[in-house]
Amino acid sequence: MKAAIYRRTGPAAEVLSVEDVETPEPGAGEVRVRITGSGVNPTDWKTRAGLTGQDPETFQIPHQDGVGVVDAVGRGVDPSLEGQRVWLHLAAFRNRWGTAAEYAVVPVERAVPLPGDAPDELGACLGVPAVTAAHCLLVRGEGREALRDRTVLVAGGAGAVGHYAIELAKHAGARVVTTVSSEEKAELARAAGADLVVNYREPGLIERVQGFAERVDRVIEVALGTNLELDLAVAGAGTVIAVYANEPDDPVIPTRRLMVANTSISYVLLYGVPSDELAAAVSWTGDAAAAGALSPLPVTRYGLDDVVAAHEAVEQGAVGKVIVTP
């Protein structure tokens, strides 16, 4: 099969190549998926660049997310899964067979059924962004039902995680306010269902958000240091600020202000989420997709041979989702 591979970390143009490798066979508890679309996330290029760990022991096929059809199952896996359309998450986590290839082999729990009427674009967009959003919304251990009639602030509502945080929160019955940096991104956030969209580059940001809600129950945060004043302005007893991204410099945390407000910060990195909490987030994402509550991000497609350009596009902050098609 053809696959994108890197054997050492570094710049995309220097370490990524497309090669013919032996098609893998699924082991016990695994499925093999014929990939029809491979989603590229910031975590994918950061791992390939060497920002999150060491070089691969042998080789690595990148990309955590994807969509395709199960074409073989390993020992102990229900054979009726063959032929099932699925979306993949964490495919390349502790596994060399990521989705930037014609086939990927993953543990069966990382391949989730995709509704028959859902487009491939949606399946390739889920995974890390949607599951991260779901976990951020559920991070206190409450069920999704607890979000009904609550208020959620989503920072960066046009981003991948922000998009699905809006859609999942609305699907659960919450009110959602979100921040964006341009009118183009505001349109994306409105299309996702946000009740109020505020351009954070314009004056009066805090006042406009407070006009919508003096207190929010949950903040889905992409830039804690940058947005901390806004978050604290609308935080109160029981507010949880769920942070899923880091910044070049660690922010100073105002412990006393958080203590007085009885507000907590929860840090989210999907790779370390306990298995039961991860399963809950995956289950909710799958249920929401089956209910038609989730939509694809704007998609930019690249062929597998152009995987270097795809990585560079994501590094440069491409809006929407970059998908590599084998």
Query: Strand percentage, roughly?
Result: 15-25%
pLDDT averaged over residues: 96
Find the structural class using helix and strand composition: alpha/beta
The SSE order reads: EHEEHEEEEHHEHEHEHEHEHEHEHE
- What is the CA–CA distance across the termini? 10 Å
Biggest sheet, in brief? Answer: 7 strands, mixed
Tally of alpha and pi helices: 11
CATH-assigned fold name of the largest domain: Quinone Oxidoreductase, Chain A, domain 1
CATH class category name of the largest domain: Alpha Beta
Instruction: Tell me the overall shape.
Output: globular
Pfam family, one: ADH_zinc_N
Protein name: NADPH:quinone reductase
Domain Enoyl reductase (ER): 12-324
Organism: Actinomycetospora aeridis
Give your account of this protein's structure.
Residues 12-324 form the Enoyl reductase (ER) domain. 31% of the residues lie in helices and 24% in strands. The chain is of the alpha/beta class. Strands 3, 4, 5, 6, 7, 14 and 15 form a seven-stranded mixed sheet that branches. Strands 10-9-8-11-12-13 form a six-stranded parallel sheet, with helices on both faces. A two-stranded antiparallel sheet has the order 1-2. The longest helix is centred in the C-terminal third of the chain and has 16 residues, at 275-290.
Any key phrases for this structure?
326 residues, 31% helix, Quinone Oxidoreductase, Chain A, domain 1, globular, 6-stranded parallel sheet, alpha/beta, 15 strands, 2 domains, 7-stranded mixed sheet, Rossmann fold
